């Protein structure tokens, strides 16, 4: 687990949650460009990283970013390792059983990426019987199975993209922003299919008992949208809003 930007020693347990001035620990997902990843200089960067720091600034708290594997990110929150998850996590009824969510800080959706050479997969129904990559524990896994795909799970987007490029899988289901970023920025021989499998609202997750913190985060999310900061960050990292 990689700790970035901040060295405060304040407790992040429930009693400290929302305390102005206390260090705010926020989890992001590891190896998930353009949301959070380590650049060539060894710095943790990405849309969610910048958004997390913006939330900390608006809550008047020093921010410490914790890069965390996706499959352990909610357990880490419940174990008081951090106060917030800003990991491009879709708001679902199942997840709401364990955690509280802010109002959506952006809206995305599930998109299909295939190799440029692939002429067989043109729509979601074409995934039936195909070898399809998804990130373990995401909503994409469930959706791909519903469509009859042979699902292969991965710990990160990077591993999926490598397998897709080398034709070890026939498609992957991913966030539309990840797909667009990857194709435009990394020049991999891949293509993003038109249309979405479904739309997703993305929220900031926190422990259910941290009600004051939820109020503060919701206010910050609203401000970030209204003053144009979200659009600026989205264009910077995704090239679209």
Task: Outline the structure in words.
InterPro entries: Solute-binding_3/MltF_N. Keywords: Signal. The protein has 241 residues and is of the alpha/beta class. It folds into 2 domains: 142 residues, D-Maltodextrin-Binding Protein, domain 2 (3-Layer(aba) Sandwich); 91 residues, Periplasmic binding protein-like II (D-Maltodextrin-Binding Protein, domain 2, 3-Layer(aba) Sandwich). It is built from 8 helices and 13 strands. Strands 1, 2, 5, 6, 7, 8, 9, 10, 11, 12 and 13 form an 11-stranded mixed beta sheet that branches. A two-stranded antiparallel ribbon has the order 3-4. Strand 3 and strand 4 form a beta hairpin. The longest helix is centred in the last third of the chain and has 16 residues. The two termini are 30 Å apart. The N terminus is likely disordered.
Task: Report a brief summary of the structure.
With 241 residues, the chain is of the alpha/beta class. The protein has helices at 47-58, 73-78, 93-96, 139-146, 157-165, 176-186, 211-226, 229-237; strands spanning 2-4, 24-29, 37-38, 44-45, 63-68, 84-90, 100-101, 106-115, 131-135, 150-154, 171-175, 190-192, 199-206. The protein is globular, with a radius of gyration of 18 Å.
What key phrases describe this protein's structure?
single chain; about 240 residues; alpha/beta; D-Maltodextrin-Binding Protein, domain 2; 2 domains; eleven-stranded mixed sheet; 8 helices; 13 strands; about 25% strand; disordered N terminus
Reported by name, the CATH topology of the largest domain is D-Maltodextrin-Binding Protein, domain 2
The secondary structure category is alpha/beta
Task: Describe the global form.
Answer: globular
Mean pLDDT score: 89
Q: How many distinct helices? A: 8
CATH class of the largest domain: Alpha Beta
Helical fraction: 25-40%
Q: Any idea what the radius of gyration is? A: 18 Å
Which assembly state applies to the chains in this document?
Answer: single chain
CATH superfamily of the largest domain: Periplasmic binding protein-like II
Topology, number of strands: 13
Q: Can you write the helix and strand succession as a string? A: EEEEHEHEHEEEHEHEHEEHH
Largest sheet: 11 strands, mixed
What CATH architecture of the largest domain do you see? Answer: 3-Layer(aba) Sandwich
Low-confidence stretches: 1-16
The end-to-end span amounts to 30 Å
Percentage of residues in DSSP E strands: 25-35%
């Amino acid at each position: 687990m990689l700790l970035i930007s901040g060295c405060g020693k304040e407790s992040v347990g429930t009693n400290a949650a929302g305390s102005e001035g206390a260090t705010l620990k926020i989890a992001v997902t590891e190896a998930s460009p353009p949301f959070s990843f380590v650049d060539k200089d060894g710095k943790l960067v990405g849309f969610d990283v910048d958004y997390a720091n913006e939330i900390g600034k608006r809550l008047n708290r020093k921010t410490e970013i914790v890069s965390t594997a996706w499959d352990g990110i909610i357990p880490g929150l419940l174990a008081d390792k951090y106060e917030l998850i800003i990991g491009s996590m879709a708001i679902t009824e199942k997840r709401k059983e364990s955690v509280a969510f802010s109002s959506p800080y952006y809206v995305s959706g599930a998109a299909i990426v295939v190799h440029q050479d692939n002429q067989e997969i043109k729509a979601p129904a074409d995934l039936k019987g195909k070898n399809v990559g998804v990130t373990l524990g995401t909503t994409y896994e469930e959706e791909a199975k519903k469509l009859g795909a042979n699902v292969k799970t991965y710990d990160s987007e990077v591993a999926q993209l490598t397998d897709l490029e080398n034709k070890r899988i026939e498609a992957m289901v991913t966030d539309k922003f990840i797909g667009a970023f990857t194709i435009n920025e990394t020049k991999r021989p891949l293509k993003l299919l038109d249309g979405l499998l479904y739309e997703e609202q993305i929220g900031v997750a926190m422990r259910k008992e941290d009600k004051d913190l939820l109020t503060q985060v919701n206010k910050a999310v609203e401000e970030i949208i209204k003053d144009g900061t979200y659009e600026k960050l989205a264009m910077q990292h995704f090239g679209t809003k």
